[in-house]
Amino acid sequence: MSDEEDTQIEEGEDESDQEPVECKLTEQVCGDSLALLCKIGNGLSHAYVKMDLHGKSLTDISIISAFVHVRYLDLSDNKLDSLSPLSSLTHLLTLKADNNRLTTAALPQMPYLQRASFQNNNITTTEGISHPLLEVLNLNNNQIAEAKFDAEALRKLSVLEIRGNQLTTTAGLGLPKLQRLYLGEN
């Protein structure tokens, strides 16, 4: 460890308090992260549909919008504060975005999204979560004080994990198909 690093530690600076160094997702990293070759469209073409980008310290994923056939995406353990580039991934089935710096889980409506996890972020609201086929949603360990969900937009949601937040009421949880609700540590 260098003297400079020793000084920072002695002064009590925490790495998580510092601005993240910009780390853009590149085509090379995307290519190395692709897996699971599947048929797409009319069944005559093939594409890789699984992308695992966890733990890459990414701050910018704008290039991901070119990978329109991705169905399974893991963005966990990065430094992302926005998921807006995912709007073109309309075939997404599973999204894992745990341990980032997200303040919202809002995304444009994903017609096929079935599982989404936004655990351990800085999310403060549940607004904008409206995916018609979503069955499992994990919002554990965020800063959500009030959970309001659109029952019509989330008509298939059966499992909701919202532990470790700041909830004071369950009044906005009118979800007709909800079978399992996890509310501990609120």
Strand content: 15-25%
Please count the beta strands (DSSP E, at least 2 residues each).
Answer: 8
Q: What is Rg?
A: 18 Å
- State the assembly state of the protein chains: single chain
For the largest beta-sheet, the strand count, sense and barrel status come to: 8 strands, mixed
Elements, N to C (H/E): HHEEEEEEEE
Average pLDDT: 89
Q: Structural class from helices and strands?
A: mainly beta
> What is the CA-CA span between the terminal residues?
40 Å
Percent of residues in helices comes to under 10%
Extract low-pLDDT stretches: 1-16
What would you say this structure looks like, in words?
- With 186 residues, the protein is mainly beta.
- The chain is built from 2 helices and 8 strands.
- Strands 1-2-3-4-5-6-7-8 form an 8-stranded mixed β-sheet.
- Residues 1-16 have low confidence and may be disordered.
Quick description:
It contains two helices and eight strands, in the order H-H-E-E-E-E-E-E-E-E. The protein has 186 residues and is mainly beta. Strand 1 and strand 2 (45-52) form a beta hairpin.
Provide key terms for this protein.
186 residues; eight-stranded mixed sheet; single chain; 8 strands; mainly beta
Ordered list of secondary-structure elements with their pairings:
Elements: H1 3-10, H2 27-33, E1 34-40, E2 45-52, E3 72-74, E4 94-96, E5 115-117, E6 136-138, E7 159-161, E8 180-182
Parallel strand pairs: 2-3, 3-4, 4-5, 5-6, 6-7, 7-8
Antiparallel strand pairs: 1-2
